[in-house]
Amino acid sequence: MDEEHYLNEPEAQEGFHFIQKKGDLFSTPETESLAHCISEDCRMGKGIAVIFKKKFAGIEDLKRQDKKPGEVAVLKRGQRFVYYLITKAKANDKPTYDTLKSSLKEMKRHCKQNNVTHLSIPRIGCGLDGLDWDEVSVILCEIFSDMNLILTVYAL
């Protein structure tokens, strides 16, 4: 979908919209929730996690939530939720598709409970974590297809 389609459609039609675009994830409006993958130890020392850590802080808040792989930790920042998908135990581990799916399902529950209709993400699990984007994109569409949600995936 192109930029114009994105700008004209979201509020006009309900349902699930999966949009992939080039750009900066952090340029999204502050009303859009964000998500990315981290380890249970909340290290966030490499990749896009470093930017999340600097921009949203809250490491101690995340640790206090005591989430395990397959769960999701959440920070509220202004009008948005920032979701931290816990997909592995330690920073140097690799996630599995099962822990990713489980974390995404937990995030979906939170999104539904809190009326989140705009969620922006990087290609989760596919950078340093090494999961396959073709498979992850199918998982995302399967999990969120029954929601009224605009899911925008940003790639540089």
Layout of helices and strands, plus pairs?
Layout: H1 3-8, E1 16-22, E2 33-39, H2 48-56, H3 59-64, E3 71-77, E4 80-88, H4 97-113, E5 118-121, H5 133-144, E6 149-155
Q: What is the fold named in CATH at topology level?
A: Leucine Aminopeptidase, subunit E, domain 1
* Largest sheet geometry: 6 strands, mixed
Count every beta strand, where a strand is a DSSP E run of 2 or more residues: 6
Count of runs of 4 or more consecutive helical residues: 5
For the termini, the CA-CA separation is 16 Å
What's the CATH architecture name?
Answer: 3-Layer(aba) Sandwich
| Whole-angstrom Rg | 15 Å
Q: Largest beta sheet: what is the strand line-up? A: 1-6-5-2-4-3
Tell me, briefly, the overall form.
globular
**SS class:** alpha/beta
The level-1 CATH class: Alpha Beta
Note the beta-strand portion: 25-35%
Order of helices and strands: HEEHHEEHEHE
Low-pLDDT stretches are 1-10
CATH superfamily: Leucine Aminopeptidase, subunit E, domain 1
Q: Mean pLDDT, rounded to whole units? A: 92
Number of domains: 1
